[in-house]
Write a structure and sequence with these properties.
Blueprint lengths: L1 H21 L1 E6 L4 E6 L2 E4 L17 H18 L6 H5 L24 E8 L2 H15 L7 E6 L9 E8 L2
Parallel strand pairs: 4-5
Antiparallel strand pairs: 1-2, 2-3, 3-6, 4-6
Helix pairs in contact: 2-4
């Protein structure tokens, strides 16, 4: 009887693991994409630009300023990932809208920059902007838990947009 109970408990645990590892949670309903997708203990985030903080972009913005603004939005989104955030909490992060696809039963505490796995950075002009972007990024990244990173030059979607950053993080 005891052996059967242990075997049943092990089977139930395995089924819970399989169910949770296959669940896909999408956060932030945008017209063409989700702001974050959580699957198998990993949170994948859409690219973020400085305008995501709701302040817009101007010709006078520096890449260092845009990078700091972008990283502030990323940090807020990392904290919200996996939480059952009500619309008011989601509204605290501009452009992170409450979605009908967000389950209301998830109770994890979110994640943070110490759990970053990968960072991808696109710069409008890498020769001009790499050093000031790297200054802002270096001030922000957790020095004890640096993720892998790639930085490339790319035309960006708006004339005053100088940097876009996309992150992937482990969930707690």
């Amino acid at each position: 009887m005891l052996a059967c109970a242990a075997a049943c408990a092990a089977a139930f645990t395995a089924l819970l693991y399989l169910h949770s590892s296959r669940r896909i949670t999408r956060l932030g309903n945008h017209t063409h994409f989700s702001h974050a997708v959580i699957h198998g203990g990993t949170a994948y985030f859409a690219g973020v630009t400085a305008q995501a903080d709701g302040k817009g972009l101007t010709a006078g913005d520096s890449v260092e300023e845009q990078t700091r603004r972008t990283l502030a939005v990323i940090e807020q989104r990392l904290a919200l990932a996996g939480t059952a955030a009500p619309a008011a909490a989601a509204a605290a992060v501009p452009s992170m809208v409450h979605s009908a696809h967000m389950p209301h039963t998830v109770v994890t505490a979110g994640t943070d920059k110490s759990r970053l796995l990968q960072v991808q950075i696109w710069l409008k002009d890498i020769a001009r902007d790499f050093t000031p972007m790297n200054t802002a990024y270096g001030d922000w990244v957790d020095p004890a838990n640096k993720p892998v990173r790639a930085t490339v030059q790319s035309p960006l979607a708006a004339p005053h947009m100088l940097v876009e950053i996309q992150v992937t993080a482990a969930m707690p």
